[in-house]
Amino acid sequence: MLTLIVSLNLLAKVVLADRAYAGCYYLPTSGEPAGIDPSNPTDTSLYGETCANRCAEELNTKWSFFWFDNPDPYVAVGHCRCSNDGPDDWTFAPGRLWGECENAVAYSAFLTQSNYLFDACFADKSDQAPDTSVTVDSVEQCLRTCNIDLNALAQYDKVAKNFECLCTDPPYYEPLSLGDCVYGSYLAWGYGLNPAQPSGWVKRQQRQRLRREQFRLSNGLCPSGLTACRVEGGNSMAFECVDIDTELESCGGCVNGAYSWGNANATSPLGTDCTSIQGISSGGVTCLKGQCLSFACTEDEGYQLVDDQCVKRLSE
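Below the sequence we write its predicted structure tokens.
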């Protein structure tokens, strides 16, 4: 099967402060979180990372808060606030895969001085993960608890309104379970940046912005030319990247439905498993431009090749 399972690389273990995404939090009834305005606090090209950068460099605050003011991404304007007080953990809100929050509903919080960088969210941790998590009140406390471990994972408890924090050197999350930052999922961070790349922060901003644009166009889950397909028997957050133009078992679409931001239901278009078509000989079919094309049929079972399809012979 020609698929690409999404995975993330470990980051180098170095000591270098950076910006760490700390989750989505519901906007208060006032419509905006408390904080100080940086220069140009409202900007059509503003993103969470640039907001964090401004708060760190202009005002030297510990936290930055960013949100869009309109549900429509084509007219939404980004807003930025800087603060030394973190968000209330009981206002934690579901977010999307790379840390995006729902427009006009929630804001993204960043720690502007941290030794950790946000990787993504995962629906599950691996079977090898140690059962050594600790309960903390906030993402900030989790990252401070992990200190210099290569990886930090935080899972929000909606009932207790706190976080379960797991600190490890191996990345004890399941790459296949990469998904939205919903209740019960794990927010994952890696420690440090490569000090040999002083422009790493800028490059990361560019990568994050590119991923956001891909997200808006096609969910941004897979490289160009591949489609995010749900995994058979997997949880609602599991997906794999498939070339539906050539994949025999997902020809023309996802056989289990396309993945759509944590939607537990299969979505169209549904593809075809070419290998399961009746009358085709073993190895006698290919997927070309999303269409199953047969070239060998089980003649002993009464099938014949007609226009690249195996058709049952009519009884004489």
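Residues 227-312 form one domain.
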